[in-house]
């Protein structure tokens, strides 16, 4: 069972028309809806389940510049600026705090890897620096380890995933957006080749543009439209503790674990290295495109054949718009967490930081992350379907970058000057012969 997410009340009225329809109520979708509503553009957001019911409430809650792919750096800089003033702007608490994040190096190889990333990031003046063992000891006191070095950014922050997207959705509604929950979109209608409406389980909404921000569901929805999106899912497991005194204030990543302090005084803890990848039919369909990522991340990947293979094999790929869709039969992706691995993470964390010895684990959960072959999102118009914007594939980077990514999607849907150059995020890069480049990020 996933974490408890702050609720968003059902919409009182169903709109039959909007300028833009947003599909998906995660951090990207609600940020897009909010950006549109701020401009006075009529917008309806359709979420098949609850707001932030999937990965937008299940992630670590990190809001970081450190470790970003160069292609994401302009977008994360804009996103941090939005986060810093977001609570005041929406009149609600997202839990954002610039408490700093450390990426710790325990070996010379990791230290060199950090140094190389820092050189790539230097033109962006992100405020990240490489710090010494003594500086680490001050930021992460009472550890049994003496680390070689760390990348540290004091203005990197954290926010509360169970609060943020619902707060933004409620603010968008105040500005006039329709926020529809338990309202799956079954498909898109076109007139003269251009988007003209969406068909939902509750009825039809005429519109001029659609922003598809469906997270791990986006591949399936695109396929029903005849669009091939090379997207796979990876599983991340997390645990949450009760309030705990004496543990570090900044968030930290090591090869063995990652943690960040929560607003309630507890901690969110996860594996620092190691991604579980369910083998599904699309694994074979997209094997060639994901081969560069497989080579780059082989040591950190755990491939697993489990029940997801048959689940996805049996899922209909097309359906009639007047029939129940797969988005209605499964409202929320709620995978089983890898508790056995989390217990190993817990033991490693306690050995390094004895202050965690008395922690009480309150909950475990897992989420399915939408991943792209180059680990860079798609935020793009679609040449063959005017009026459609896709915003997906954030590959575990989406929460922190979400407010600016939603703003960029809103810009593209309305033809406004984009907040950043969207070229690196174009959908066509997977079909126009461009090489798939996997940057050595963190």
From TrEMBL:
A Gene Ontology molecular-function term?
D-amino-acid dehydrogenase activity
Q: Which SUPFAM superfamilies match?
A: FAD/NAD(P)-binding domain
Q: Does the keyword Oxidoreductase apply?
A: yes
> At the top level of its lineage, which domain of life is listed?
Bacteria
The FAD dependent oxidoreductase domain is annotated at: 19-412
**GO biological processes:** D-alanine catabolic process
| Cellular compartments per GO CC | cytoplasm; plasma membrane
Keyword terms: Oxidoreductase
PANTHER family given in the database record: D-AMINO ACID DEHYDROGENASE, SARCOSINE DEHYDROGENASE-RELATED
What does the sequence similarity comment in the record state about its family? Belongs to the DadA oxidoreductase family.
This protein's name: FAD-binding oxidoreductase
- Source species: Acidisoma cellulosilyticum
């Amino acid at each position: 069972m996933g974490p408890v997410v702050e609720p968003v009340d059902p919409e009182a009225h169903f709109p039959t028309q909007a300028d833009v329809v947003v599909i998906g109520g995660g951090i990207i979708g609600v940020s897009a809806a909010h950006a549109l509503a701020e401009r006075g553009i009529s917008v309806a957001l359709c979420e098949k389940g609850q707001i932030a019911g999937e990965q937008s409430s299940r992630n670590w809650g990190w809001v970081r510049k450190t470790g970003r792919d160069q292609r994401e750096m302009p977008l994360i800089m804009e996103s941090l600026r939005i986060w810093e003033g977001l609570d005041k702007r929406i009149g609600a608490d997202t839990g954002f705090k610039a408490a700093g994040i450390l990426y710790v190096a325990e070996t010379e190889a990791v230290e060199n890897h950090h140094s190389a990333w820092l050189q790539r990031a230097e033109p962006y003046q992100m405020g990240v620096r490489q710090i010494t063992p003594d500086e680490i000891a001050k930021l992460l006191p009472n550890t049994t380890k003496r680390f070689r070095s760390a990348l540290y950014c004091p203005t990197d922050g954290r926010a509360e995933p169970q609060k943020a997207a619902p707060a933004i959705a409620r603010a968008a509604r105040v500005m006039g957006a329709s926020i529809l929950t338990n309202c799956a979109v079954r498909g898109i209608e076109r007139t003269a080749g251009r988007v003209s409406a969406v068909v939902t389980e509750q009825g039809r909404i005429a519109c001029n543009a659609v922003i598809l921000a469906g997270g791990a569901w986006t591949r399936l929805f695109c396929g029903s439209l005849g669009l091939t999106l090379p997207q796979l899912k990876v599983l991340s497991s997390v645990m949450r503790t009760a309030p705990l005194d004496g543990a570090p204030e900044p968030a930290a990543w090591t090869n063995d674990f990652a943690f960040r302090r929560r607003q309630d005084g507890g901690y969110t803890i996860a594996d620092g290295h190691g991604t579980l990848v369910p083998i599904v039919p699309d694994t074979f369909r997209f094997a060639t495109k994901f081969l560069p990522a497989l080579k780059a991340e082989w040591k950190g990947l755990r491939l697993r054949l489990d029940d997801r293979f048959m689940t996805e094999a049996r899922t209909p790929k097309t359906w009639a718009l007047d029939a129940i869709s797969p988005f209605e039969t499964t409202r929320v992706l709620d995978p089983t967490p890898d508790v056995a691995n989390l217990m190993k993470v817990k033991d490693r964390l306690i050995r390094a930081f004895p202050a965690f010895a008395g922690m009480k684990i309150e909950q475990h959960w897992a989420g399915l992350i939408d991943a792209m072959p180059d680990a860079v999102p798609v935020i793009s118009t679609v040449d063959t379907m005017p009026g459609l914007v896709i915003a997906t594939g954030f590959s575990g980077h989406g929460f922190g970058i979400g407010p600016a990514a939603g703003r960029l999607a809103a810009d593209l849907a309305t033809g406004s000057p984009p907040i950043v150059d969207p070229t690196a995020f174009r959908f066509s890069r997977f079909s126009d012969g461009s090489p798939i480049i996997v940057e050595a990020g963190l």
